[in-house]
Amino acid sequence: MRHINKNPEPPELHRFRRANRRATYEHLPDMLRINIRSCLVQEQLYSCCYCGNHINESNDYSHLEHFKPRHHFPNLSLDYNNMLASCNSMNSCGKKKDSSYDSQLISPLDPLCSLHFLYTPEGEVKPNPNHNPDSARITIEMLNLDCDRLRGLRRRAMQGIGLGLCDLSADEVEQLLHSFEKPSSAQLPAFSTAIVSALKQVLHELEG
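Structure tokens predicted for TIGR02646 family protein (208 residues):
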């Protein structure tokens, strides 16, 4: 999970809310929903808010997710700060979470969210014992972030840069870290946060 810096709400959503003060998400026109999702995908650098896999604006690849579900928090259904873009996997992330919620669920809007999780070169995600591991465990289970499918995808992404397949020097690891922590494009590589976490652990072992 990577911290998401929210942009101001789209002007179209602001105007809709002002003109329809009793409206809920269900009242949003389809084209406005598409516009909002596009804004979310772009501000997330084309990365799923929960797992970090690549997404785009298409209905086939992403959906508009409410961190606090509309069913339980109808007053937040049009709050842009409660809206995220999630991948469309049926067994993880927003689709898996559905209308479930727990007050300990870690939000990608938390600036320290990435510190709660540790990733291995084998693709596993685990709670960081030094950063509220109970909340991380709840989040991993509710979003099914350690399912076999995501493990395999993360493992292949890491193998794509040599992690787990060959011995990397500390200099090589540092160069890789820099490229993933400060991407030069408007789109993040898939699972970049998981890769950064694994690279930091490898670097720690090399320098230890």
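The first strand starts at residue 62 and ends at 66.
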